[in-house]
């Protein structure tokens, strides 16, 4: 039994980027789809697709690299963990690396980046930081 599926997702992405894989697959969940959608909107991945199968579906993420093969995702850090949750108000959210990175938040309006949360003036649980 997996206790932290978001950490598993981030670790799979981190490992795939470190060996320069074009894509990565993992078990599907609504939270993982939300994180993948934020990564796509913010330009860290090309695309994602959900494959529903019985009993467990899978989430397929196409990773993004630069023209010369440079990594778009350089670092992924889990912030809020099952043993220590981290919450933040919208006014307390600060840009990651002066706007070069993002934080992904789970809010009452769904998963969103720190930029979107500041614009909509909504806070939530800070899941991870990516740059």
UniProtKB/TrEMBL annotation:
**The protein's assembly and partners:** Part of the 30S ribosomal subunit. Contacts proteins S5 and S12.
Cross-referenced PANTHER family: 40S RIBOSOMAL PROTEIN S15A
The lineage's top-level taxon is: Bacteria
Q: What does this protein do?
A: One of the primary rRNA binding proteins, it binds directly to 16S rRNA central domain where it helps coordinate assembly of the platform of the 30S subunit.
The family this protein is said to belong to? Belongs to the universal ribosomal protein uS8 family.
Against Pfam families, the record matches this protein to:
Ribosomal_S8 (PF00410)
Q: Which GO terms describe its molecular function?
A: rRNA binding; structural constituent of ribosome
Stored PROSITE patterns: RIBOSOMAL_S8
Give any Gene Ontology cellular component: ribosome
* SUPFAM superfamilies according to UniProt: Ribosomal protein S8 (SSF56047)
**Biological process according to GO:** translation
Query: What name is this protein filed under?
Result: Small ribosomal subunit protein uS8
Q: Does the keyword tRNA processing apply?
A: no
Q: Which InterPro entries match?
A: Ribosomal_uS8 (IPR000630), Ribosomal_uS8_CS (IPR047863), Ribosomal_uS8_sf (IPR035987)
State whether keyword Transmembrane helix applies. no
Which keywords belong to this entry? Ribonucleoprotein, Ribosomal protein, RNA-binding, rRNA-binding
């Amino acid at each position: 039994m997996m206790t932290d599926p978001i950490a598993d997702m981030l670790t799979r992405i981190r490992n795939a980027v470190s060996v320069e894989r074009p894509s990565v697959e993992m078990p599907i969940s609504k939270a993982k789809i939300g994180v993948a959608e934020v990564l796509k909107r913010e330009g860290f991945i090309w695309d994602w697709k959900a494959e529903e199968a019985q009993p467990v579906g899978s989430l397929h993420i196409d990773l993004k690299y630069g023209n010369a093969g440079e990594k778009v995702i350089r670092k992924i850090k889990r912030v809020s963990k099952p043993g220590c949750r981290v919450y933040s108000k919208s006014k307390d959210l600060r840009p990651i690396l002066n706007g070069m990175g993002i934080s992904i938040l789970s809010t009452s309006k769904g998963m969103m980046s720190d930029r979107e949360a500041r614009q909509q003036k909504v806070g939530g649980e800070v899941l991870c930081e990516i740059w």
